């Protein structure tokens, strides 16, 4: 199988169907479009957990090792992804456990730098590092990190937090205003608006710009390339998730690998609903357009970390609430009855495909085929 997420049909057939959860403690477990697992204990307390993994390198070293099987991330990115998943699930990120699997050639200075970066990112997010594992193994040809994030549920009832498949008959979480929210299981319901925060393709744009800097500078001005490289500053969706939860929403989903189209599909698939999305309204930075054109990547299928998908009865009101806090937001479509996921682009209407492999992997594998500097 190719690098990246498992295809959805393989995930359903060979992973999800093997998982059987019967415990009442598990409020939300494995499934399509679920950002984190939620455990509820005595009373109304609940804890959420999310895991992220990947090859990692020190800051600024992504895309620099031609022998690596995939582009390296930073360990801070993995921690941020966990925090984003937790926030999208309705939890406040609180702690993380970090596992590092090291190749035999790894040096102590590299381990120290990675853990210093992890500690700094956790301080930034008000999270604690609880522990983890660090070990050398013959099975690793690069540093592999596994981060597990934990968060405390924000609501009075953990069941309020995230949508589950089949929840479409339940009332929405909130009444479209910050006051008088009606508690109930969150769900994406037909008729709700679909709202996106910030822009799509942010995380992938930053990775591609850093790994293709020399080539980009031959085509574009330095200020554009530097701005694209700096998109990592937008990757946290924690602020908008908290605003959305207070406002009153149907559901949230953290866009990431597979791009915005993959994330929209996952949201709809997990909730068992359809979508009608206006492609022209999907917020896209010009820097992303230029970088993707140079690298031969579809921006709609590119790592979309930093963008939060939200559904709400009052989409314009939610977008306005986010804008008041300085967070760009766009109303891009509607949740619909049935299972049809429709993309509208002017007069063209087509069905959304199942999530595809993220474009960043295709670029990585074809980089030797691109013109040399």
Structure explained in plain terms:
Helix 2 (75-88) runs parallel beside helix 3, helix 4 crosses helix 6 (222-229) and helix 4 (202-211) packs across helix 9. Mean pLDDT is 82; it is low at 162-185 and 369-373. The protein starts with 7 loop residues before the first helix and ends in a 7-residue tail after the last helix. By secondary structure, the protein is an alpha+beta fold. The protein folds into 2 domains: 1-7 and 24-158, 2-Layer Sandwich (60s Ribosomal Protein L30, Chain: A); 180-373, Phosphoribosyl-aminoimidazole Synthetase, Chain A, domain 2 (Alpha-Beta Complex). The protein is globular and about 55 Å long. It contains 11 helices and 13 strands. The strands form 2 sheets. Strands 8-10-7-11-9-12-13 form a 7-stranded mixed beta sheet, with helices on both faces. Strands 1-2-3-6-4-5 form a 6-stranded mixed beta sheet, covered by helices on one side.
């Amino acid at each position: 199988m190719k690098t990246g997420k498992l295809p959805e049909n393989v995930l359903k057939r060979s992973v999800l169907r093997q998982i059987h959860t019967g415990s009442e403690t598990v409020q939300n477990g494995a499934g399509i479009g679920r950002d984190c697992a939620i455990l509820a204990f005595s009373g109304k307390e609940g804890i959420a957990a999310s895991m992220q993994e990947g090859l990692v390198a020190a800051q600024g070293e992504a895309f620099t090792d031609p022998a690596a099987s995939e582009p390296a991330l930073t360990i801070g990115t993995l921690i941020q992804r966990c925090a984003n998943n937790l926030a999208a699930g309705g939890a406040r990120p609180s702690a993380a456990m970090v596992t590092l699997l090291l190749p035999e050639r790894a040096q102590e200075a590299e381990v120290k730098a990675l853990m210093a970066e992890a500690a700094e990112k956790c301080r930034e997010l008000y999270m604690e590092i609880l522990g983890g594992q660090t070990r050398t193994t013959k099975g690793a040809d690069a540093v592999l990190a596994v981060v597990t994030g934990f968060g405390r549920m924000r609501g009075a009832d953990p069941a309020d937090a995230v949508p589950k498949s089949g929840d479409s008959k339940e009332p929405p979480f909130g009444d479209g205003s910050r006051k008088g929210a009606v508690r109930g299981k969150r769900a994406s319901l037909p008729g709700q608006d679909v709202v996106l925060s910030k822009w799509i393709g942010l995380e992938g744009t930053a990775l591609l710009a850093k790994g293709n800097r020399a080539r980009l500078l031959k085509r574009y001005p330095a200020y554009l390339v530097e701005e694209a490289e700096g998109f990592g500053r937008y990757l946290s969706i924690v602020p908008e998730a908290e605003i959305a939860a207070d406002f009153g929403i149907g559901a949230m989903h953290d866009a990431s690998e597979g791009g915005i189209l993959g994330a929209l599909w996952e949201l709809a698939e997990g909730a068992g609903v359809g979508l009608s999305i206006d492609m022209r309204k999907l917020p896209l930075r010009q820097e992303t357009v230029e970088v993707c054109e140079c690298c031969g990547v579809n921006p709609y299928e590119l790592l979309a970390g930093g963008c939060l998908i939200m559904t709400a009865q009052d989409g314009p009101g939610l977008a306005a609430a986010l804008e008041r806090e300085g967070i760009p937001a766009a109303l891009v479509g509607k949740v619909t009855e049935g299972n049809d996921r429709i993309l509208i682009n002017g007069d063209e209407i087509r069905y959304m495909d199942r999530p595809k492999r993220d474009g960043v992997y295709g670029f990585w594998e074809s980089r030797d085929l691109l013109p040399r500097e």
